[in-house]
Design a protein that fits this description.
The complex is a heterodimer of chains A (405) and B (459). By secondary structure, chain A is an alpha/beta fold. Chain A contains twelve helices and eleven strands. In chain A, strands 1, 5, 6, 7, 8, 9, 10 and 11 form an eight-stranded mixed beta sheet that branches. In chain A, strands 2-4-3 form a three-stranded antiparallel beta sheet. In chain A, strand 3 and strand 4 form a beta hairpin. In chain A, 55% of the residues are buried. With 459 residues, chain B is mainly α. Among the domains of chain B are: 98 residues, no CATH class; 137 residues, no CATH class. Chain B is 56% helix and 5% strand. In chain B, a hairpin with a 2-residue loop joins strand 7 and strand 8. In chain B, helix 5 packs across helix 17, helix 21 runs parallel beside helix 24 and helix 22 packs antiparallel against helix 24. The longest helix of chain B is centred in the last third of the chain and has 17 residues. Chain B is globular and about 85 Å long. The chains are: A alpha/beta (405), B mainly alpha (459). Chains A and B meet through helix 5, helix 7 and helix 8 of A and helix 11, helix 19, helix 22, strand 7 and helix 24 of B.
């Protein structure tokens, strides 16, 4: 197993994918410095994945553009219903909670987020967003996994990253550490600690030089036991009057607030909301998804304020791609390219960032990206989490102004 | 052929087709097996065992069709996903043709269709029967059957694919995930292929061709031009060299484990030479030197189906299939509901902090099963580990033989012997040897422990 000492001393491990030759040693040295600095930083990043490809054009609506209404004869959102953020764009009418956050200055809306030569495959595009790499062969680690490999302390009792999703997102795939998935962890603890349980814990977590699948499963088992005990404690201590929507996303964010309140040393939390692959009869389903998203995030923000943690948390929302500009014959939209990203938090400067993509000049029927999504990652890594982004992303991206450089 | 990895396995000096290799074959080609079945395979030898896997299935098919017809609508509610899931799990547990159910599971993961979108459970059941009927047949026939399958037409929006409004969803996944894999076609090939499938629709539970919605114009797909329809697209894709390679890789990962590059090269040539006939390919694989080598033995991580069904078959456990369904779902494998169109990723993705506790919980709970079901003892452990074995050493050796074919480390065996004679109140060595009731309980504790060990989940 790669240790933190290896990482700081020799730079092997989590960032080996940045094998781009020149400047490697310099990058590694800076990653090590950054890791040391980031240790003192106790800020949290919550990532919200909208799975399936969110229709950015019906999330942030260019209500003054006639081309929008021409391309969206049944799906277009009427101008008077749009929740205006500026003279030209506004949020979907079901996103009142987030519109309010925008007015209060705590919501950054990033327009036209994407990457060059967009891929319309869910899996490939998700892989690009999760690994922050457009290289033909994707790195084995995710961007958040590499971050945690760099900043997670050696202390096994600190839970640096947690996934509240059903499985482990590729973004949290790491080399040095194992990121636990919160769901069902309680099943393993909370029993009586019999001889058999003690023996099982000992045998199933033993360090070993055995065959790969067994060694892998033992590492997983270690992470399970460690995390289960911490989370049980966090849930028991959490008290809050805030009511979240009774949805999967609402529940995931409520658990996120519990975990943040418990000060477990968490730096990254990952939640997701599924259902955005709206190929047919999109209007009602998409509205319900956005309403859930907006209300859940607003509740989360209120909860954090009540828990006095709002200054320590930023939340980023992304999807693997947007949808095609013109709606299809099934009152839905097919896979597209550039879309809208959101960043929410009391500690950032809200507003509109980037420029809205043109609806006149399209790439193969899709919006052409105006902001590389890794610009947002870089801004959060450098400006929020205090960990130099260049070694983790393999490239330097100029930050956006929603955080001080 | 100059095959090395796929040359027939022959025993080296001091080797034989023993219980280790027989159990390996039974785990991979099926879902695990009782000690008696392992012994039977050893007695028959490798070739006869493999040949037996491809035996005529018509008798079982007739049995299941008759029982299904009599239960459908009453015991098995065809509209209830849980009931249809449980029905399949019941068959995995009881089938006399485990390879066919295993292959059906493979194809379900390959053409991963999810009932949550399809919404019509009888169509999911019908798709399953199509997968089963083609399980070890010619791959091109299966691909064509899936292109016309009603559940698939809903799942990937084929039913809304028209000349006026081509829907790319099926055409894209056909290339990316079902045949040749990403990187072997261009975006324009997908658009053209979508046109070729236009008008391939569904009416109720039947495939229909709507000529008025079909685009009869010329298409150019992967460099070939013509007035192609969906069948032509399938033919073209079957001739792409990447297809046998992509499929050989998937079959190897499922049955043998992640292949080294030279193994994959050879497998791709082999599958190509059989013209994508699955039976020929798998027979060669199961008989091969590679399959019986250290590169494969216990080098895969059991899927929830392999772990749950395998444990049930190995120990002769009798629990309702609906309960097994819930367990598998908690472990990340809900049948008819793969996570996305790519199917289950498998291997390391099976194991995370959500699924590992679910596996441990299953081990604990089945080990504590007591009493009778309508069909016999729910956990007939005493049939394989007789209660008149009183020495901890013999009991641990017997459990090791049944579950791990003697593969447990000595350190683990020693800890298990200790566990047998130590309760939470202290040492009970004498009571263990002298009291059948204590042995009954303690043996189950040792069983639960072995079933929870990472070693047992490496199959």
């Amino acid at each position: 197993m790669i240790t933190r000492r290896d990482f700081l001393g020799y730079g092997v491990g989590g960032i080996t994918f940045v094998s781009m030759g020149c400047g490697l040693n310099r990058l590694l040295a800076r990653a090590a410095e950054g890791a040391a600095a980031a240790e003192k930083n106790d800020r949290v990043l919550v990532v919200v994945e909208l799975s399936g490809g969110n229709d950015g054009l019906n999330t942030l609506i260019p209500f003054e553009d006639p081309l929008y209404y021409q391309n969206r004869p049944t799906l277009g959102i009427a101008k008077e219903e749009v929740l205006r953020l500026s003279d030209s764009v506004g949020l979907h009418p079901q996103m009142g909670g987030l519109a309010e956050q925008f007015l209060e200055g705590g919501l950054a809306v990033v327009q036209g987020a994407g990457y060059p030569e967009p891929d319309r495959s869910h899996f490939r595009s998700m892989e690009i967003w999760h690994t922050a790499s457009t290289a033909a062969t994707a790195p084995a680690t995710g961007w958040l996994g590499r971050l945690l490999d760099a900043v997670a302390p050696e202390d096994l009792d600190v839970l640096s990253g947690l996934a509240l999703t059903g499985g482990l997102p590729q973004a949290l795939g790491a080399e040095r550490i194992v990121v636990p998935v919160v769901a069902q962890l309680e099943a393993l603890v909370g029993t009586d600690g019999s001889n058999r349980e003690k023996l099982l814990k000992k045998l199933s977590t033993a360090e070993s030089a055995s065959a790969a699948p067994v060694a892998f499963m033992r590492r997983q088992a270690q992470a399970v036991y460690r995390a289960a005990e911490k989370l049980q404690d966090a849930a028991a201590k959490y008290q809050s009057p805030v009511e979240y929507p009774g949805t999967g996303l609402g529940e995931q964010l409520r658990r996120a607030a519990q975990i943040i309140a418990a000060d477990l040393g968490v730096r990254v939390l990952y939640v997701s909301q599924d259902g955005y692959d709206t190929h047919s009869d999109q209007a009602a389903g998409h509205a319900a998804l956005l309403e859930d998203l907006s209300a859940s995030l607003a509740a989360f923000q209120t909860d954090l304020t009540g828990l006095k943690r709002e200054d320590r948390v930023a939340t980023m929302v992304f999807s693997e791609f947007g949808r095609r500009v013109d709606e299809n014959g099934s009152r839905g939209t097919d896979h597209g390219a550039a879309s809208t990203m959101l960043v929410l938090g009391a500690g950032l400067t809200g507003g509109l960032y980037g420029t809205h993509p043109s609806l006149a000049q399209l790439g193969d029927g899709d919006l052409i990206y105006t902001t590389d999504f890794r610009t947002v990652y870089a801004t959060l890594l450098d400006g929020w989490l205090g960990c130099p982004s260049e070694p983790l992303l393999g490239e330097k991206f100029a930050p956006l102004a929603f955080l001080p450089a | 052929m100059l095959a090395s990895h796929f040359a027939p396995w022959t025993p080296g000096p001091g080797e034989s087709f023993d219980s280790v290799l027989a159990a390996h074959l039974l785990r991979r080609a099926g879902f695990g097996a009782s000690p008696e079945e392992v012994q039977q395979a050893v007695d028959q030898g490798l070739e006869a065992t493999v040949e037996g896997y491809f035996a005529d299935t018509s008798e079982e098919d007739a049995d299941y069709a008759r029982v299904f017809d009599s239960l459908a609508g009453s015991i098995v509610d065809l509209e209830d996903p849980g009931a249809v899931q449980a029905w399949w799990i019941h068959r995995m547990v009881h089938t006399r043709h485990p390879l066919r159910e295993k292959l059906t599971l493979f194809w379900h993961g390959h053409f991963a269709t999810n009932y949550n979108k399809v919404g019509v459970m009888p169509l999911m059941q019908r798709q399953l029967e199509t997968l089963r009927a083609h399980a070890w047949g010619d791959f091109p026939d299966l691909v064509l059957a899936m292109a016309r399958d009603p559940a698939m037409l809903i799942w990937l929006d084929g039913q809304t694919n028209t000349k006026e409004h081509p829907n790319e969803n099926f055409a894209r996944e056909l290339m990316e995930l079902f045949t040749c894999g990403i990187g072997n076609y261009a975006e324009c090939d997908i658009l053209e292929a979508a046109r070729a499938f236009s008008g391939w629709h569904r009416e109720g539970a039947e495939f229909v061709f709507h000529a008025e919605e079909h685009d009869f114009d010329r298409k150019t797909i992967l460099g070939r031009s013509g007035r192609f329809d969906g069948g032509d697209v399938v033919d073209i894709l079957m001739q792409v060299p990447a297809t046998p390679r992509f499929m050989a890789g998937k079959l190897l990962r499922f049955f043998a484990g992640e292949p080294a590059p030279d193994v994959l090269d050879e497998a791709a040539r082999l599958l190509d030479s059989t013209q994508l006939n699955i039976k020929w390919f798998l027979r060669e694989l199961f008989l091969s030197r590679h399959f019986h080598s250290e590169a494969c033995l216990r080098k895969r991580i059991a899927s929830p189906a392999e772990y749950v069904i395998g444990t049930v078959r190995t120990l002769g456990i009798r629990v309702p299939a609906a309960e097994l369904r819930d367990r598998m779902t908690a472990m990340g494998q809900e049948l008819f509901a793969p996570p996305n169109v790519k199917g289950w990723d498998g291997e390391q993705k099976w194991i995370n902090s959500a699924t590992w506790p679910a596996r441990v919980a299953f081990a604990q709970d089945v080990s504590q099963l007591d009493g009778e079901s309508p069909f016999g003892r729910r956990l007939p452990l005493e049939a394989t580990v007789p209660l008149d074995l009183t020495e901890p050493e013999d009991v641990v050796a017997r459990l090791d033989a049944i579950l791990m074919q003697g593969g447990l480390d000595e350190g683990v065996r020693a800890a298990l012997r200790e566990l047998l004679v130590t309760t939470d109140d202290g040492a009970v060595a004498d009571t263990y040897r002298g009291d059948e009731g204590v042995r009954y309980q303690r043996n189950r504790e040792a069983l639960a422990t072995i079933l929870s060990l990472p070693e047992y989940h490496a199959i």
